[in-house]
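Query form — protein GNAT family N-acetyltransferase

QUESTION: What is the three-dimensional structure of this chain?
INPUT:
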Amino acid sequence: MTFTFRRLAESDFPLLGGWLARPRVARWWHHETTPEAVARDFGPAARGEEPSDDLLALYDGRPAGLVQRCAFADYPEYRAELAAVVPVPVDAVTLDYLIGEPDLLGRGLGPVMIRAALERTWLERPDASCVLVPVVAANRASWRALERAGLRRVGEGELTPDNPIDDRAHYVYRIDRPTVTD
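ANSWER: The structure tokens for GNAT family N-acetyltransferase are given below.
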């Protein structure tokens, strides 16, 4: 059982909107879920007009979740906010993720999906030295998935949360590009 990825397409927006509307996803992602809002928020990346990658995560070929990936260098304000908490290398990348299918939750697939996304990142972004992921401290399931995927906590600090009901307290996780040994 493996995860593969493909670029999110506009034809995936109804599926994504349904995931974003699910209470467990909505709690942490805090997105509007109307078709217009999903098209507004995810359309530019799907059309390649935005420098981020929105990737549909497929579990054994079945749509299962979403991974967003971007280089901090493409988002200077985001980089500056995080750099107040931890050092952010110029070539650092970040990920955000969700598992949207309810029957796949609670099965330990989050870390598997994150590891697969990391492997793809190292292949597709050869200039990336590390992946840094800030996560709301209250989102224990998310930061535990990062730990199980091999990331380590490198900082704690206040950052703007995605959901305004959350506290500003965040943990920051990091994994460095694996070194190749002969």
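ADDITIONAL NOTE: The two ends are 29 Å apart (CA to CA).
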